[in-house]
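Morning run. Coffee first, then this:
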Amino acid sequence: MSLVTHIAVRSDTEPYRRGSAGYTRITLALFLAGVAAFVSMYSVQALLPALADDYGVGPAGAALTLSVTTGILALVIVPASALSERFGRTRVMVVSAVASCTIGLLLPLSPTLEILIAGRALQGATLAGIPAVAMAYLAEEVDGGDLGAAMGRYVAGTTIGGLLGRMIPTTLLDVTTWRWAMQAGAVAALLAAVVMMRVMPASRRFRPQSVGLRVVAGNIAEHLRDRRLRILFALAFILMGGFVSAYNYLGFRLLGEPFRLAPAVVALVFLIYLAGTVTSSVAGVLADRLGRRWVLPAAITCSAVGIAATLVDSVPWVLTGMVLFTAGFFAAHSVASGWVGSVATRHRAEASALYLFAYYLGSSLVGAGVGVAYAAWGWPGAVGCIGALLAVGLALAARLTVLSRLR
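And here it is:
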């Protein structure tokens, strides 16, 4: 091989740096991947009161349409990451996007709640390929010094997806049924997925690996032996569980006493997600500059203050509290997910999958569990559960800081 050829090959495999065309394309593609996945995942959350009325079930029963999706996604996310080790990151993401969007277009045709729940479970399984691979894909292709900012853009995409997934269906409820409202969300997810597939760069630094059960189990065991990763996985469970719980039951609270807000007004509450769009990107940059150990506990504290403020029976207080809560959550998630890619220097797909397994398992289990507390004690019961989780999260963040200093 000539010297010129050798240099060209090395240059072609260098990681993307911030400001390069490749960095712009990959972060745009992952932003759109986050939009497509989260519109699909959360298009039912804003429709939970309508589903409860239509099918004659309580809040916890309606919430199963969301909990089953995230629960199945959590179970499939590790196998999906293993498949990406063999068949490639981009291929798995494309297949996942096509399959989940196709199912999403069919879900509004469900004649019964049971069929809707089964369809949502299948959609959760097909969705797993996007979040399972996205973090590993970025960690491989983006320079470590710019990884926090890149991960922040991906998380920002999830906030926009979460916002659209809630805003589009709820806004349409005033003029149509929940079925057409859900269909509109499915179309939005499909559009984001199509553009994602067109702009996403091919993997340049990926190398196929064996995906035998023994190999995957060994990789997982290696990550679980790292105390820092175990804490990050626990934080994922706690943070996402509390976040989804708050938004699951916020709509029920605002529609009921003492607020009695109209559905269209409640839909506007989801604009609060824009706070997370900003803080997820900003937190990634701050983590690169100031250090993750400072940004993470500050973000969790912001969430705790915010959820406490929602206890006041005043719309301004509730909205302000949810802004702080949402901003803190997405900042913390952006930092924690980027931290996983930094700590796990080998077998990153499995490390990312374990983080997301805990993340979505928290969404499913805590989201359903807090529903029981809400049924028994109303909004104060839900806030009490979420506040306790955040207190544990702060303790874990402090422990993570200590462990990081020792290395």
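The radius of gyration is 20 Å. Good start to the day.
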